[in-house]
Amino acid sequence: MIVESVLLKQTQVPVQALDCLTGSGFRQGEAGSLADVDVDYASNRRQEVKEYLECRYNESGKQRVFSAGTYSTMKLKAVIKDVCRVYKVPVSYVNYITTIFEDDNMTWTDLFKLAATNKKVNKFVQDYPQVIEDIRGLMGQPRSASVHASAIIVTPNVKDDEEMECFDYTPIKKVDDILVSELDGYSIDETGLLKNDCLGIKELAKIQSVIDECNKVYNAGITFERLVRGGLDDEKTYRILSKGYTQNVFQFSSAGMTKFLMDMKPCCINDLIAANALYRPATLESGSTQKYLDCKRGDVAPVYLWGTYNALHSTYGVLVGQEQLAQMAREVGGFSLGEGINLVKYISKKKADKIHAMKDKFMSGAANNGCPKEDAVLIWEMIELGCKYLFNFSHATAYAITSYVGAWLKANYPTAFYTVALQWADDKELPPIMSEMEECSSAKVAPPDINTSAEKFFTDYQTDEIFWSLGKIKMLGIKAVEYIINERTKNGPFKSVENFVHRVFKYKLKKYEYWDDADNEQEAIRVPVNARHVKNLILAGCFDKVSNISAVVERYSILDKAATELGFKISAEDYPDHLINQHYFWSMQQIEVCGIGQIDYKRIFDNSYCHHQFKGKASYSTVRKALDKDSEGKKIALCATVTEMEEISYKDKKSGEKKHICKLHLQQNNDLIKLVCWNDFYVENKAELRDIKDKIIIVSAVVKYNDYSGGNSLNTYKTSRLFTLNQQDNGSTQK
Length: 735
Prior knowledge:
By secondary structure, the protein is α+β, with helices and mostly antiparallel strands. The protein has 5 domains: 5-72 and 144-203, no CATH class; 75-140; 204-399, no CATH class; 443-594, no CATH class; 601-734, CATH 2.40.50.140.
């Protein structure tokens, strides 16, 4: 690419435009391909980018900006169903056959491979040969068209001294008033037009929200750019990553990656770049990830083959990035950088003839440079193996910088970070975020409060209390929340649940004197709050503070007052007499309606009749202790709530017998762990396990390290015991 001129244009908003105008076309150099331009934007501002491009380049009424199209193609299952419909094959039979296909990406050849081992599929192929023949030509054909999620193209305004629009370069159609190419992104590239992938990334929007919060509350004067230019060397940031405090940090939140960072102990941005590039299935399988860790920790000395030091010294002799490969090919084999790029492409795409030619050239170039043949052979083997999994360093760097900024904000402004994290989190993400927050920050989550909480999470930065969002309470929609907050803002804090009902429902309940004010326009306004909303507000703990209650069981009295005011009945079925004085019952109600609450599992365990059966066999433990690396191998007794249950069938390799396991997701307040119930235990407790979701259980198990998750889990053993909470007699009973 030859840059002929660079133009800098300042708009009314702080956006800079850098135009690179090419006179000889984009396909320059030995690599012979267009640049792959990926730019990430905050997800909530991606539309602004598109509008800016349209405003910037659609000059004088000319259309130069459009989106690439994309096509979904016909796959085996869909094609068979469509063709069978034409030939009037019974639908039930077709559905039965297609359910046998485990992989929807099966090819036409794969169908015959399956037919060779499956009698039902074989019979189908034999009975309907015309169907099989017809699907051959249809598979892979476009099925439906849509707009590419990110690809935007700007066409040159002049070609061969003639003014042009996008219509002059490629077929264009309109989809919902959006100009869209009839060609997909790959085909656009082949025409010589440069495709720009403008990606909307949720993480960038979250980070900007944290930055805005810090600047508003602390007057911090933070920008993303300042953090990046600040050196990327903050010790606090690397310390929290090394300790495993990675929740809600971009790219680093998974259990496996968290463990990898704890083992790695990152201390600089290069470590984070390497982590992004190395922690991938193929890299893990190749052994490169472990080799990097061993070298970084000093357990093993790095080994550098002839001429590879310059390329590999930053990664301890481990080939990590595609750029390193291109550099080795140039410095050892005498390749140009363009040839090095092509080498990556040929090997990754398994072009055997091209690879063979490249190998001969590499070996010859290495010999000319003085590289020993033995080293040259080993280097080439490293290159061939590495091309299968190597990651692009520039991509890894961009991700690592984003990760660093998020981690920096967590390390230096934890309360603001967790406030935003909780607001953006879905229900499954909330417990691990809160669990981590309790460990590594002074911030704490407070139950929702009718006089403090807002639509979103509200934080009192003087006390570091993050008040639960009213919007997180079940069934309480945005209109109801806004109505409550408007009333509170207009007329002051609510003094009691009766005062709340009196004020919020004053034009809805006829028993109040306000109702008879014929001249009051408010009487015609529909009140979006109902009795169910009030119940859930009470169960969520919103009236605890204003009602001066000291224990969660006292919420029943608040509920009774609301029932009296609003005229609804408290069902004995929903609130049984034997449970209304049980702390765990009201805590579970709170968790169910809003996702926050504290259950005293130790108290439940101690008060259960079965707890004495665990003495001397498996001592009581918490989930948090079980997750600690020092707990591996210990037999424990655990009281927890089952949030999910998954049954899995498998074939025993030794006996060939079909067996089953069951995975239970256990939760103790904000702490989560998995329990694997092996076949014998599963068979013994099969009926109870299938009906165990959302129940509190007491179980004995052994703590085992799980290589896949990178953390501890629980496993049943030969004499493991299971009890479920019996709500009828306020104890526990073995099932």
